[in-house]
């Protein structure tokens, strides 16, 4: 019996030690998930084009002048003269659209990228249309890709004489692999001797932890945190691709700012794990008065000299929420204790927003409060 008890105690101790070792590891994240390499980024492209082949759901040419002019210009480039009867054109099978996409880093000529399409005029539905050849321009005015192909909205729209139904947005569409890259953005990664990591959430502590992790892994001082967002890297003749690939897989524990974010329009509240509340007493409740009118009609007997009388009946209910008590939250409580304490008071999301704003005004909320 004693040996079995000792074995159980030993197994339990091993499990507790394993859990203790796993806990900090679970909080670690890869550097590539919280930081970007400066200079390696997407570039936004935009273009103006025409979608044709619509089943009468395109732009009205009489009101969308730019669509009519674009259609006339396209037909003239194809050898069709429409200037003489331009104002008589009344087709509804064409729609003017804006085409947007992001050119990925290191995209080479001939590779394909997805494009997004949005109606520019008064078209009702782009389903079933075909985007004609559309040059996509960068910020410098140069053409970096050309888009063309059948559009897919993923929306459903039906209309009858007395009702209509719509699911999704039929005037926005996408073309998977709908653009071909014609020009690349030059960037030589192998020739770089120094680079910088840009943190997605700037923080001094996280930047120092990243620099320390890189220096430990490389065995030399090659990383320096220059500000809350930037960690400078000195490659020092190393292979940039192999060195940066190794850095991306290093794990650190990112630090968090104590912050409470409130989306007042939807009633959403997000609180970080470092939020703390000083000792504070909370009382929450409202006086509700409900008045219900149920008038009763009294009618005389048939063939009598009486008259119809309406007797008012009013019912008044008062809810002063006496069951709600004043709650005391102890100082330096955790996020879980805060939520548990407020839930015990029967506080809903809308009331919780008011309570958190009031706690902040009282100076008891030791966190940044951001209301959107």
From TrEMBL:
It is found in: Bacterial flagellum basal body. Residues 1-27 form the signal peptide. GO terms for molecular function: structural molecule activity. It holds the Pfam family FlgI. Its main location: other. It comes from the Bacteria. Keywords: Bacterial flagellum, Cell projection, Cilium, Flagellum, Periplasm, Signal. GO terms for cellular component: bacterial-type flagellum basal body, distal rod, P ring; outer membrane-bounded periplasmic space. One of its GO terms (biological process) is bacterial-type flagellum-dependent cell motility. HAMAP family: FlgI. Assembles around the rod to form the L-ring and probably protects the motor/basal body from shearing forces during rotation. NCBIfam families: PRK05303.1. Belongs to the FlgI family. The basal body constitutes a major portion of the flagellar organelle and consists of four rings (L,P,S, and M) mounted on a central rod. This is Flagellar P-ring protein. It comes from Humitalea rosea.
